[in-house]
Write a structure and sequence with these properties.
The structure holds 2 protein chains of 2 kinds. Chain A is an alpha+beta fold. Chain A has 7 helices and 4 strands, in the order ααααβααβββα. A 4-stranded mixed beta sheet of chain A has the order 2-1-3-4, covered by helices on one side. In chain A, helix 1 packs antiparallel against helix 2 and helix 3 packs across helix 4. By secondary structure, chain B is α/β, with parallel strands linked by helices. Chain B has 3 domains: 212 residues, NADH-ubiquinone oxidoreductase 51kDa subunit (Rossmann fold); 86 residues, Roll (Ubiquitin-like (UB roll)); 94 residues, de novo design (two linked rop proteins) (Up-down Bundle). Helices cover 41% and strands 12% of the residues of chain B. In chain B, helix 3 crosses helix 6 and helix 5 crosses helix 7. Chain B starts with 19 loop residues before the first helix and ends in a 20-residue tail after the last helix. Classes of the chains: A alpha+beta, B alpha/beta. Chains A and B meet through helix 2, helix 4 and helix 5 of A and helix 7, strand 3, strand 7, strand 11 and helix 13 of B.
């Protein structure tokens, strides 16, 4: 077997280990570890799953099993620099959430869950973002975009943003 | 009605209201210090039991009673999990509490941990709340620095650590045993009960799972007393020995087609109409409401004629809804097609069914496939009976699933078809003049993706 360069950095592993005293076993670190890797790489490729499993003393299948339950972690390629969740649940849908999603995908030439070719923007439908008082809304990285219209949303998503934590 | 001064939302709009200095200046953490000096854990349990506080997360179970299910004299550890996976469509009251007054929540958690003898509390926070994450973490750090968390809190023998644990965008993690499984690092598949979490929960230890707003209520009960709490809301029905009453203030989330969406605090028992007219500025654009969701989408629908129903724990059930739920009121105006509403609801539940129980996994995805077909102009009247059959057979109440997600998926279907059947029939006949009467099996238009 050809040795591949390690994906998890020492810093990521240190971040995971720093959380270990919080839990009575290492399996509970699965979701925090996935978040740490995802925040750094914007995706969690299979190789990273194997390495997380190694760090946690689990079988890779156990980590992959948990990962695939959530549609949250991409595995094929990294998300865009901005990952935009467009809410389509009832309160946003009543105020144009579905149309917002369709418009943004059309304008950026991608399908839902897709990333623009330049790697800048990923657009995903989301279920209730819990900001129904500002419907329709979008979560772009860590920023909640409130009371969006197709035009304001289009402009907002062109802006550079701090990475998601 | 006497104007009600917000208590749980006292800090909203206060500059720097989220800081420990602001919370202390409003009297915060004093009750905790008094409790640690003067009261035993059992006294706190009795206080919360006597207050009649019912869990604010959706099921409305008595909080104090839930705590008493923990085994007596257990050597520990006992865990406290705080459910901040607020994902019910229309609901955002916990977000506002965590962002605007996180110390109120933390004081409630410390009091509840003291009562339940837990020395570790996990806040399971949904991914979609980055600002809550930051505000809570800052507040937890402040509480450690001020000696309200950590070892031997304020010189007592009581120690507590609070940890934030972040979810990954899955509705089912709001189900308490789904939350526990997710926290343990597994797929968030709800567990078969019994054993209930109080006996065997997180890491197979006795566990209490409580909601964020419930914690805020505990803090206020400690501060203002049992009598204050019981003076608010709807007393128990004397003719119904099983009604524990609906006491205390409640955060109602108002959204959808109203002029002023927002989170409003009133005594339990306000009617939907009062909430919409007095707080929400009425239905938007001068229109009428066609239907109103009483407490998150899984509670079903009230019609315009049912809007005078009091939104207490017993109210929505009297008009055929599932219950009060999260008290998230979503207004749907007269221009909305009920077909579109039900399609949205079915899409949500098909996406969020965890896939563990066949009736829910298949029922939610088939109901969506049928609604897709009806919307595409290929509906048949027979579909309404099929949808009703799905609604009547999936869930904990018919006894076919492990958790209540399927009941929540079923209720909008059942309510919509029962209360708006005529509109469905008209829609189907108008959009499918050739085939509405067909009863032969027909294929779905497309495969539906889900969790």
């Amino acid at each position: 077997m050809i040795a591949q360069p390690r994906i998890l950095t020492d810093e990521m592993i240190a971040q995971i280990e720093a959380l270990a005293p919080r839990y009575p076993n290492r399996r509970a670190l699965t979701l925090p570890a996935l978040h740490i890797v995802n925040a750094a790489l914007r995706y969690v490729p299979l190789q990273a799953v194997v390495e997380i499993a190694d760090v946690l003393g689990l079988a890779p299948a156990e980590v992959q099993d948990t990962l695939t339950f959530y549609q949250f972690f991409h595995q094929e390629k990294p998300c865009g620099n901005v990952r935009a969740f467009v809410c389509r649940s009832i309160s946003c849908a009543l105020r144009g959430g579905d149309e917002l999603l369709t418009h943004l995908c059309h304008k950026n030439g991608i399908d839902p869950y897709g990333t623009t070719p330049n790697g800048e923007l990923t657009i995903e439908p989301a279920e209730c973002l819990g900001a129904c008082d500002f419907a329709p809304c979008i979560l772009a990285n860590d920023d909640l975009l409130k009371n969006m219209t197709p035009e304001t949303a289009e402009a907002e998503l062109k802006k550079p943003r701090a990475r998601a934590t | 009605m006497q104007p009600f001064k917000p208590v749980l939302l006292e800090a909203v709009g206060v500059p720097d209201g989220q800081t420990i200095a602001s919370y202390r200046s409003r009297g915060g953490y004093e009750p905790l210090e008094q409790v640690l000096k003067q009261k035993q854990p059992v006294d706190v349990v009795e206080m919360v039991k006597a207050s009649g506080l019912r869990g604010r997360g959706g099921a409305g179970f008595s909080t104090g009673l839930k705590w008493t299910f923990l085994p007596k004299d257990h050597p520990g550890p006992i865990y406290l999990c705080i459910n901040a996976d607020e994902s019910e469509p229309g609901t955002f009251n916990n977000r506002i509490l965590m962002e605007d007054d996180p110390h109120q929540v933390i004081e409630g958690i410390i009091l509840s941990a003291y009562a339940t003898r837990a020395s570790t509390a996990y806040i399971y926070l949904r991914y979609e709340y980055p600002q809550s994450w930051q505000r809570l973490q800052t507040a937890i750090d402040e509480a450690y620095a001020a000696g309200y968390l950590g070892k031997n809190i304020k010189g007592s023998s009581f120690s507590l650590d609070i940890y934030l644990h972040r979810g990954a965008a899955a509705y089912i993690c709001g189900e308490e045993t789904g939350l526990i499984e997710s926290l343990e690092g597994k797929r968030a598949w709800p567990r078969i009960k019994p054993p209930f979490p109080a006996i065997e929960g997180l890491f197979r230890k006795p566990t209490v799972v409580n909601n964020i707003e419930t914690m805020a209520c505990v803090a206020q009960i400690a501060r203002r007393g049992v009598d204050w709490f019981r003076s608010i809301g709807v007393p128990a029905d004397p003719n119904n020995p099983r009604d524990p009453g609906s006491y205390g203030p409640k955060l109602y989330c108002l959204s959808g087609h109203v002029e002023r969406p927002g989170c409003y605090e009133t005594p339990l028992g306000i009617t939907a109409r009062q909430l919409i007219d007095e707080f929400g500025g009425g239905v938007w654009k001068g229109r009428k409401a066609k239907a109103v969701i009483p407490g998150g989408i899984s509670m079903g629908l009230m019609t315009e004629a049912e809007l005078d129903t009091p939104l207490d724990f017993a109210g929505p059930g009297k008009v055929g809804c599932l219950g009060l739920g999260t008290a998230a009121v979503v207004v749907i105006d007269e221009t909305v097609s009920i077909v579109d509403f039900l399609h949205n609801s079915c899409r949500f539940f098909a996406h969020e069914s965890c896939g563990q129980c066949t009736p829910c996994r298949e029922g939610t995805s088939w109901s969506l496939r049928m609604l897709e077909r009806i919307k595409a102009g290929k509906g048949r009247l027979r579909d309404l009976d099929l949808l009703a059959e799905i609604g009547n057979t999936m869930g904990m109440m018919p006894g076919s699933t492990i958790c209540g997600l399927a009941d929540g998926a079923a209720w909008p279907i059942k309510n919509a078809i029962k209360k708006f059947r005529g509109e469905f029939e008209d829609y189907i006949k108008q959009t499918n003049p050739q085939g509405w009467m067909v009863t032969d099996p027909v294929p779905a238009l497309q495969i539906v993706g889900s969790h």
